[in-house]
């Protein structure tokens, strides 16, 4: 079997694996939303392609300069939509084929990913506008080809950093520095003239002939590097070569006084401290809170009242929303054990709610510098903290009734993706949009101070009544328990 035949066979197997997945119905809902999002994204790209083309005034090289902004945006978007090829390679490692063949085929598939070609929605309108303005056809085609190759190169850069970030979250720092290189002189001098000089320097070479072979050379080099890293870390996870012995066991005796809820609090805390999946999610969320808090406190980037309110809300909500959106997913690894005693689940849900409400103290403390700088008020922080602890957690906890896919606790490279069904998507959208709507309506009607007071009252109402609505969630879960258990067991790695 040659490489082309293997490539076609693996593509066929991927499509079949999606159709045979227990989560196929959920995948359908996800595909509908992804398709709608892609259409909206393309419409925005067409609009910006036209605007950049008009601004270019017949100079195709402006598209290459625009890549200074497009590439970082593309890199960040891939964290939301793109997984590493190694996640699909696991079943093929032990087959009698060349040990790198499967990795190579999946890497080539990532080059041909539809996401890479979405950016043509910007490049093609740009090309049409500059051609109508009198630009050379060959130069314009060369620039569009070069821009598309830069997007594909960016996909390989993403794969490298995503793989390394999975190993150590600190790799996000060199990733961000890489895209900051053109702007570092400006940040050092804090002068608009320096930025002008940098852009003038780039403009001299943005249509140079040697850029194409340079990009192709970089693409080949990153392909070989990713080929090596993907195989190395997948094989390491499968063979468990790097498992470390636990040298110290923390007892967390403080929680003993809370009985069975205290035991579940210990499990939740230890899971976030030890298990790779949850620990990485925790670190990334707190890092984002720190970054945005510092930006708000010490820069003028988000001085607009609506933007400061937006980021204040999501600094509180980001950790709970990323962790609880798959609520019960980690417990799917041992769901049969949890079902052996009556009302185990209700104690678990209460412990989770107490834990994620207590975690809100951390972003509260992190954002205090913004209060001292006059960007936030204490009433504002309390309003958002209570709103998240009450309303948003109440909404997200409803997902416990419908989630039925197991999340691996330790695997970070070969873990399975998890898609949603329609009800889950509605709940998630409500958690994302409803708080913003409350703040927006309050801002334009009664003012922010009254809105913050209302948020405090509303949040406290849900916090005080949490035993009642958690009991309701538990009763609905029990009605679906056999369906959910079947889903957890079917998706367990």
Give a structural overview:
- By secondary structure, this protein is mostly helical.
- Helices cover 73% and strands 0% of the residues.
- It is built from 23 helices and no strands.
- α1 packs across α4 (101-111).
- The radius of gyration is 25 Å and the shape is globular.
- Mean pLDDT is 79; it is low at 413-419.
Give the N-terminus to C-terminus distance in angstroms: 30 Å
Integer-rounded radius of gyration: 25 Å
The counted number of beta strands is 0
Backbone structural class: mainly alpha
Proportion of residues in helical segments: over 70%
Task: Give descriptors for this structure.
mainly alpha, 493 residues, 23 helices
Summarize the structure.
The protein is built from 23 helices and no strands. The chain has 493 residues and is mainly α. The longest helix is centred in the N-terminal third of the chain and has 33 residues, at 24-56.
Secondary structure layout:
Blueprint: H1 3-20, H2 24-56, H3 62-81, H4 101-111, H5 114-117, H6 120-132, H7 137-167, H8 172-180, H9 184-189, H10 192-205, H11 211-239, H12 259-274, H13 276-298, H14 305-324, H15 335-338, H16 344-358, H17 361-366, H18 368-372, H19 378-397, H20 422-445, H21 448-464, H22 466-479, H23 481-490
Helix pairs in contact: 1-4, 2-6, 3-7, 6-7, 7-11, 12-13, 12-16, 13-14, 14-19, 14-20, 16-19, 16-22, 19-20, 19-21, 20-21
């Amino acid at each position: 079997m040659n490489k082309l035949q293997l490539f076609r066979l693996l593509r066929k197997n991927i499509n079949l694996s999606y159709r045979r997945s227990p989560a196929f119905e959920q995948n359908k809902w996800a595909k509908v939303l992804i398709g709608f999002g892609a259409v909206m994204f393309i419409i925005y790209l067409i609009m910006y392609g036209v605007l950049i083309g008009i601004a270019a005034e017949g100079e195709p090289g402006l598209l290459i300069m625009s890549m200074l902004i497009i590439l970082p945006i593309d890199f960040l978007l891939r964290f939301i939509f793109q997984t590493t090829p190694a996640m699909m390679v696991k079943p093929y490692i032990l087959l009698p084929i060349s040990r790198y063949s499967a990795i190579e085929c999946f890497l080539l598939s990532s080059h041909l990913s539809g996401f890479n070609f979405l950016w043509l929605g910007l490049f093609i309108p740009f090309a049409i506008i500059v051609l109508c303005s009198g630009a050379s056809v060959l130069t314009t085609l060369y620039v569009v080809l070069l821009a598309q190759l830069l997007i594909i190169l960016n996909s390989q850069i993403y794969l490298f950093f995503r793989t390394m970030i999975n190993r150590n979250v600190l790799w996000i720092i060199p990733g961000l520095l890489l895209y900051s290189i053109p702007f570092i002189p400006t940040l050092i001098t804090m002068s608009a003239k320096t930025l002008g000089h940098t852009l003038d320097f780039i403009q001299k070479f943005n249509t140079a002939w040697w850029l194409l072979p340079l990009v192709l050379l970089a693409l080949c080099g990153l392909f070989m590097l990713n080929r090596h890293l993907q195989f190395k870390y997948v094989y390491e996870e499968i063979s468990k070569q790097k498992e470390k012995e636990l040298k110290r066991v923390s007892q967390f005796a403080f929680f003993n006084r809370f009985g069975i809820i205290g035991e579940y609090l210990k499990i939740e805390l230890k899971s976030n401290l030890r298990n790779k999946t949850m620990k990485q999610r925790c670190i990334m969320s707190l890092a984002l809170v720190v970054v945005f808090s510092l930006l708000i406190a010490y820069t003028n980037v988000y001085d607009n009242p609506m933007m400061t309110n937006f980021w204040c809300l999501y600094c509180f909500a980001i950790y709970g929303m990323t962790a609880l959106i798959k609520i019960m997913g980690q417990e799917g690894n041992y769901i049969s054990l949890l079902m052996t005693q009556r009302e185990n689940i209700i104690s678990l849900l209460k412990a989770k709610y107490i834990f994620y409400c207590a975690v809100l103290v951390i972003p509260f403390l992190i954002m205090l510098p913004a209060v001292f700088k006059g960007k936030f008020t204490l009433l504002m922080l309390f309003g958002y903290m209570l709103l998240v602890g009450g309303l948003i957690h109440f909404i997200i906890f409803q997902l416990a009734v419908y989630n039925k896919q197991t999340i691996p606790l330790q695997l970070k490279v070969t873990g399975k993706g998890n898609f949603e069904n329609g009800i889950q998507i509605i709940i998630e959208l409500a958690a994302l949009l409803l708080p913003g709507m409350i703040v927006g309506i309050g801002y334009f009607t009664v003012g922010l101070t009254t809105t913050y007071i209302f948020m405090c009252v509303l949040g406290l109402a849900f916090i005080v009544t949490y035993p009642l609505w958690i009991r309701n969630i538990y009763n609905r879960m029990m009605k679906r328990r056999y369906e959910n258990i079947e889903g957890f067991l079917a998706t367990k790695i």
